[in-house]
Structure formats: structure tokens, C-alpha cells
Design brief:
Uracil-DNA Glycosylase, subunit E, 206 residues, binds uracil, five-stranded mixed sheet, alpha/beta
Length: 206
């Protein structure tokens, strides 16, 4: 991935496109790579990632079985928030990832992921305190899916109240949604994982 569509390419060590199986039903979308992610080229490998792994287990999911990515694929300098023009420049990558992976459930972590994904699905974004733990139906990139909005794990590291809300969202709401899509009646995934792996890699080469 040698993208130069926004200024963030000037600061990155490695782009962090995302990782995980392409035949999964569940996609996790965070905000942007941090320092550790930039160094390793992998999403959620620092302290927030450790917490995410635990939260996923609370929802009945192992990290290895979900696809994990971010709204922007390169680290903003000093871990500042991504700017609107950086988010817009990077959005086609996320839309293509959704088109190829066809998740049934997207877990949006933090307000940037929540706002972008809800707007793409035709919903309004107000605030995390009002909307965390809510489930939204929608279509993104032609894929019918559900979005659950919750707090960013990094925000929960030093704030017990946020951590409590985040843990409840994963253990109750997200767990219930995961059980729902795993029921036999929800149907088999189509398409070969191998074919999608190839087209996703081709896409990032462009
Ligand atoms: N925070 C994010 O939003 N994404 C990462 O990949 C790591 C930390």
C-alpha cells in the first residue's frame, strides 16, 4: 500500500490497512493507527488492542476470527484526531473492504468510526453517550449489515465509567448480535476467501 492521497503518508512508518480473515461476518473499525500500530503495520497491537482482545472474548469472539481495521490507515502525527479531509481521502479503502468482506456486523469503536459508519448507512450521529450500545441497520457498499456503536477502548483505559459501559456493550449487545448472526437460519457466507484475499491485496497496491 503506497497511498499518497492525504498528508498522513508523510509521517507513517507503515500503513495499517487491516488484518483478519476475509470470510468473517464481523468487522471491527477503530479510529487510526497509534505508535505501536505504525511501527508494526498491524491494527490494535498496543494497550487498547489488549483491551479489545479481552472485550471480543466477552462477546464470544476471538480476535483471529474478526477483521480489524481503522477509519484512516496511517498514523496521524502525535496521535491527533484524523482531519475531515484525511477521513474522506481514506474512505474508499474502507468502503472497498466492506464490499469485499461483506460483514453482517460492524463494531464501530469511538466517535470517528461511529460518525462515519452511521452516516454511510443513512443514520444521524449525535453523541457517544446517547448512542453507544445501540444497533443500526443499514446498507454500505451494497452490503446489508448492522452497526453497533461503542466507546473506543483507549478512552476506557483510564476511565472506569467508560470501561464499565464498554464492557457492558460487548458482553450484552455485541454478544447478542453475534449469537443472532450465528444462528443456522442466518445463511452461509458466499464466495471464496482466497478470491477475496487476492482482490483486496490488488486493491491496496493501486
Ligand atoms: N487505536 C485505534 O483506533 N486503532 C488502532 O489500530 C490502535 C489504536
Amino acid at each position: 500500500m503506497n497511498c499518497t492521497k492525504c498528508r498522513l503518508h508523510r509521517y507513517r512508518t507503515n500503513p495499517v490497512p487491516g488484518e483478519g480473515p476475509l470470510d468473517t461476518d464481523v468487522m471491527v473499525v477503530g479510529e487510526a493507527p497509534g505508535r505501536n500500530e505504525d511501527l508494526q503495520g498491524r491494527p490494535f497491537v498496543g494497550a487498547a488492542g489488549q483491551l479489545l482482545n479481552k472485550l471480543l472474548l466477552d462477546a464470544g469472539l476471538r480476535r483471529e476470527e474478526v477483521y480489524i481495521t481503522n477509519i484512516v490507515k496511517c498514523r496521524p502525527p502525535g496521535n491527533r484526531d484524523p482531519k475531515d479531509d484525511e477521513i474522506s481521502a481514506c474512505l474508499p479503502y474502507l468502503l472497498r473492504q466492506i464490499e469485499l468482506i461483506k460483514p453482517k456486523l460492524i463494531i464501530a469503536l469511538g466517535r470517528h468510526a461511529a460518525r462515519v459508519l452511521l452516516e454511510q448507512a443513512g443514520h444521524k450521529w449525535h453523541s457517544m453517550s446517547k448512542q453507544h450500545g445501540h444497533v443500526y441497520d443499514g446498507v454500505i457498499s451494497g452490503v446489508r449489515l448492522r452497526i453497533v456503536v461503542t466507546y473506543h477502548p483507549a478512552a476506557a483505559l483510564y476511565r472506569p465509567q467508560i470501561r464499565e459501559a464498554l464492557e457492558k456493550d460487548f458482553a450484552e449487545v455485541i454478544r447478542r448480535e453475534v449469537e443472532r448472526i450465528r444462528r443456522p437460519s442466518s445463511g452461509e457466507k458466499r464466495g471464496s476467501s482466497q478470491a477475496r484475499q487476492t482482490s483486496l491485496l490488488d486493491f491496496f497496491k493501486k
